[in-house]
What does this fold into?
Amino acid sequence: MPSIKNKCLNCNKSFIDFSVNKVKKYCSYKCKSKGRRKTPITIKKNCLVCNKEFTDTSYAKNRKHCKKSCGEKSDYHKIKKNIYLKEYRKKDKYINYQKKLKVNGTLKKYRKKYESSPKFIFFLKKFRKTDNFLIPHKIRQAKRRADKLNATPKWTNLKKIKEIYKNCPRGYHVDHIVPLKGVNVCGLHVENNLQYLTAQENISKGNKLIC
It folds into this structure.
């Protein structure tokens, strides 16, 4: 078949169509990609953080920040995600799924699996370095120390207490039999008031007196 001269729809240059069907509309692949775009090649936008004007040259035209540093500063995606999660947890689909897990007795297993996953551990370690965790944790520690000092009388044997804490086996906590700040009764920080409990038992006990 003879070659036909066509005009490019993007740059208006004349080119020879060597294709078999003679259906070419663009002179090159670059013109083809530019001509097929519905959106213009450059769009002017305002940055969400610094409010500066910038030209969005990306293919999808979905840029929201002028620089990478501005994108790291903004919490736009986090806020959007939190709003979506709050709305999703109100839906019947999520509520019915949670009820189904509770009825089957698989909700605790699912939570244990998630808590042992590397994703959860990574976010937990990251959170424990922030001020939202460190400040209240230090306050709780200081309060605990003050309670111990107030609950230790002069006649206590501090050497025996140190030995009890040193000889505590792995996976166990040193617990007060009568809690230092209980609801009905308050005990003393004395060697006779100490016992070994597993971590799970000690956490579940809290400030209760179990006889």
The first strand starts at residue 4 and ends at 7. Residues 34 and 41 are 7 Å apart (CA to CA).
